[in-house]
Amino acid sequence: MFVRLRLFWPALLAGFAFVAAAPPSPSPSSAPTPAPVATPGDPCGSLLSIVNRPTFGTGVCTVRTGHVDIENGYENLTTTGGSNTVSYPQSLIRIGTFDPHLDLEVGPLTTNRTSSGGTPIVGGSDFAFGAKYELGYTSRALWGVNALVTVPTGGSTFGAGNAQFTGNFNWGYTLNSEFGLSGTLGFNAFSAYVRPNGAQSYFAFTPTLELTAALPGGPSQIGLEYAYFSSAGPGLGSKFFADAVYQRDFGQHVQVDVEYGFSPGPSIGPRQHYIGAGISFMN
What we know:
The chain is 5% helix and 53% strand. The protein contains two helices and 15 strands.
């Protein structure tokens, strides 16, 4: 969400890393869906192209001048062994600036509730802020960058313990009127709690790839995404997630989404799967 800017990456990685936190995510990218827009040829005119939820990758399109986009979500994550984590509202507030190709983004605290061994734990995630810039586009392709910083405001269960920094290169390509490809190349200085040593920082390369398909009967699409983490935590190996998403616009101001994702886990780690849903608003 953000990086999958995903504000629930902490829950997704914690189960494998045997740590209590990891980066926010990213929220999500959308393929460059063609739509009527004010600027001829501009691929960023529809909610489908602008809203970041609910994928790991980050979309190229920015919120235009004079507009505000508020994205919200719910996730229920299950890890083999009995652990279950619920996260909400996963809000991301994106504000258009004087430059229509630049927006500012804020990720307020998300509430998390986890149960392991029958003992529930409730806590907040770290606060995040960043910015996104659309560098350019052609009739089929578009590309841009975004940056994210998280501040260690959460506790040891759902916070990272240290400041985290992410820089992404984002891209999209329209294959034809039905299909599109998009992805993110993420470079991250993450942090996680490792008991009993406390918070430790580590680097992770996080590329994503998504294939989307427009659906008949309205502004909606389905997508399949692959997200790779070169490191799942301090001193740990790689990990990947795969997810399937459905997004639908209701007019020009509301979008809903649902998703299912999983990680088979490496040979030494647990398997995870999750379901989620979200609703986004733009004026």
